Amino acid sequence: MGRRRPRTGEDWELLARACTTLLERLPELVDEHLRELHEFEPAYGRIVPYDQHWQEAHAAMRIGIEMISAPRNSPRRDLEHAEETGRRRAEQGLPVELMVHAYRHAGHLVWEALIEGATAAPAQLATLMQSATIVWSAVDAQADTASEAYRATERELRRRTDEQLQALLDALLQGQRSPEVVARASAGLDLPEQGRYAVVVLRCDRREASEAFHRRVQGSGARFLWRMGADCEVGVVSLAEGTGLDALAELLEGRCPGPGGISPVVVGLAELGRARRLAELALRTCPPDSRQIVRLDRRMAGALVVGQPELAGLLVTDVLGGLLELDPADRAILLETLDVWLDCEGSAGRAAGRLYCHRNTVFNRLRRLEQLTSRSLSRPRDLTEMTLALDAFRLTLAG
User: Fold this and answer.
1) What is the pLDDT of residues 56-106, one digit of tens each?
2) Angle of helix 50-68 relative to helix 132-173, nearest 10 degrees?
3) What's the Rg (C-alpha) of the chain?
4) Chain-centroid distance, C-alpha 163
5) 77-92 vs 50-68: helix axis angle to the nearest 10?
């Protein structure tokens, strides 16, 4: 192939004349452009108001035609317009492929009209054919610029939407119950207003919380929405009918990065604030070094203790007063014996097996506890006080 000859001043004059003639036909070209777009895909008409679309297409095609014969170093007004259009189409929700199709279609119409107008002038036609690369490069650049602006705007809109939805979820977890907030959260988060929910609160830091963990705990019958706090992670769990707290606890156990508390099941998004408070209370019944996932309905006694720290302190002083004066190691042995004996449902033999000692040793330690506390483990009321005092010591003072 021979080298393409450089364009002369006469070439640019011919191009300018062809573009000026084409601008006189611009309104009919815009009409044809929109008619064919709507025939190709009716969504154009549903999403972009016709008058607005006509004015924007008119401006885009006019600027594009003017740029064909503009000096090489002219400002790219066509790309500025394309960037604005890309942002606007993303905000309107027109699919990006339809926007790009509109640019390609307009480019074809303009090119065909230029060729049609030059068929009777061989010199002008030759100049146009020499300029084909300029025209189609400009169309490609416009479509690419509009697409980049579209995707950037789409990401920003998605980020804003996510932030708004997270703010709605936070509002529910903080106890807001207004019908407007509940309705917006239901629609935006795709959650039923009157569904079955539980809240999980995990004690962890940001290094432990991860997307991998969130994927691990997604299970059939439970959908999780997570929010990261300063020192804990809060999960709103939408429970399918028939899925209970046993299944939820089993799903979380061993997969969570720290101890956690599970609220009772509540009905409705408006109850999430109460569920969060109850889940936090359940979490507070976990000792600092624990990695257990506990249900509030299985930790009611401990929840009563941690929920009233002043009364818990008084309970420890009143019931365990004599124990507090012992050497810490001696005190720890007696309290561990009581804890294990309670876990073994009052069986000294089973407790001895877990403590690696003789059952008589267990009896001796329990009698010593009774002496130091002036309580009898055989009296239900005294036993209740001893149990609550043990929880209070472990969860408030010792922690």
Assistant:
1) 999 999 998 888 777 777 888 999 999 999 999 999 999 999 999 999 999
2) 140
3) 37
4) 8
5) 160
Q: How far is CA 45 from the centre of its chain?
A: 33
* Spatial separation of the C-alpha atoms in residues 231 and 157, rounded to whole Å: 29
29 and 109 in contact (C-beta within 8 Å)?
Answer: yes
Q: What's the pLDDT score for residue 265?
A: 94
Assess if residue 227 is contained within a domain. yes
**Averaged over 12-18, what is the pLDDT?**
73
Angle at 263 between CA 261 and CA 267, to 5 degrees: 160
CA atoms within 13 A on the CB side of 313: 4
pLDDT > 90: percent of the chain: 54
Identity of residue 265? V
Decide if 386 contacts 341 (C-beta within 8 A).
Answer: no
| 392 CB burial (10 A radius; 0-12, 13-18, 19+) | buried
Place of tokens 């604030």: 273
Coil, strand or helix at 42: coil
Based on the fold, state whether residues 248 and 351 are members of the same structural domain. Answer: no
Domains in the chain: how many in total? 3
Angle of helix 359-373 relative to helix 380-392, nearest 10 degrees, comes to: 90
Residue finishing a domain among 158, 179, 202 = 158
Question: pTM (2 decimals)?
Answer: 0.64
Angstrom distance (rounded) from CA 350 to CA 394:
22
Q: According to the model, what pLDDT value does residue 4 have?
A: 45
Average pLDDT over residues 316-333: 91
CA distances from 382 to 70, 319, 326, 375, 385 (A): 97, 9, 21, 6, 5
Answer with the one of 247, 277, 298 that is the final residue of a domain: 298
The Cα 232–Cα 258 span in angstroms is 9
Q: How many residues make up the chain in this entry? A: 399
Q: Where does the chain show beta strands of DSSP type E?
A: 196-203, 222-228, 232-239, 260-262, 266-267, 293-295
Q: CATH number of the domain that 338 lies in?
A: 1.10.10.2840
Distance from CA of residue 121 to its chain's centroid? 62
